[in-house]
Every structure is written in C-alpha cells, then in structure tokens.
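To the wet lab folks,

You asked to see what we're planning to order before we commit. Fair enough. Below is the target structure as tokens, and below that is the sequence we designed to fit it. If anything looks off to you, flag it before the synthesis order goes out.
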C-alpha cells in the first residue's frame, strides 16, 4: 500500500485537533489492492458527500458530444476514474481523506490518506473538469494542438 494516490502517515490529529476516517472497502486484484473511498456511505446519519459542494455541471451535454463526435477525423475517449488520480489534493486538505488499512488481520491498522481526487465524491467531477479547462487555457499558447 502507498501508491501515488495514497500515502501512509503517522496517526495523529491535524492542526484543528480533528480528522475524518472515511469508510472504505478493499477490492483485491491480481497484482494490487485498490482501496475505494466511499463518500456516499452514511455514518451517524451523514455522509462526506452531504458536506461537499457539487459545483456547476461543466461536462458538455451528451447530445452535443454525440453530434460533434463524427465531425472530426479522430475521436478520443478517456476513463474519468483514472483522470481523478492525476488531480492532487492540497496538503492541508488531505486529512479529510484518511482511511485505515491493514495487510492482514494480525496487524494493527495503519493510517493512510489520499493525495488525489477520489471517485465517488460529489465534488470530484466538477473539480477535475475545471482543472482540465484551466490547464487548457493556461497552456494554450505553449501547446496549441492540445
């Protein structure tokens, strides 16, 4: 455990004296274990998604995408779940994305926190699209073909 999108940390409260341990589940694959944060899960009648702002819908309408899909010579599609892992979370905000992990039941759980956007959070789609659009505008002169 401890990939680019998650880092092990010492178990201690953040500067405010509090931290959030998010519900998570583990999906084991052949070569890796993937921890999935579960923002929609309700604990004590509240969920992480209840506290997150979704932001405006920045994704283009599906009808418009389908109409323009055949206009060009090349069409590109991407996995949005992988896109979230490229968007890093500010250091001071990472304590809200903590989770516990143990390699086996004989070990004490270790404290980890996500370093990138998580799939399933209400704010992740808007944040990722905003950053994509912002980078496209910022680097337009440097990379005009992109």
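Sequence we intend to order:
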């Amino acid at each position: 455990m401890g990939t680019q999108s998650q880092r092990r940390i010492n178990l201690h409260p953040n500067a405010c004296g509090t931290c959030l341990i998010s519900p998570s589940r583990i999906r084991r694959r052949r070569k890796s274990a993937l921890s999935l944060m579960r923002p929609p899960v309700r604990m004590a009648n509240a969920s992480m998604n209840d506290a997150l702002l979704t932001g405006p819908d920045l994704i283009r309408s599906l009808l418009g995408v389908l109409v323009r899909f055949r206009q060009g010579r090349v069409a590109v599609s991407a996995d949005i779940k992988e896109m979230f892992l490229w968007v890093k979370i500010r250091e001071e905000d990472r304590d809200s994305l903590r989770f516990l992990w143990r390699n086996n039941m004989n070990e004490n759980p270790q404290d980890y926190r996500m370093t990138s956007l998580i799939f399933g959070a209400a704010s992740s789609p808007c944040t990722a699209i905003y950053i994509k659009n912002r980078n496209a505008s910022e680097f337009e002169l440097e990379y005009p073909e992109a």
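Structural context that might help your review: The longest strand covers residues 24-28. The beta strands are 6-9, 24-28, 33-37, 98-101, 110-114.

Thanks,
Computational group
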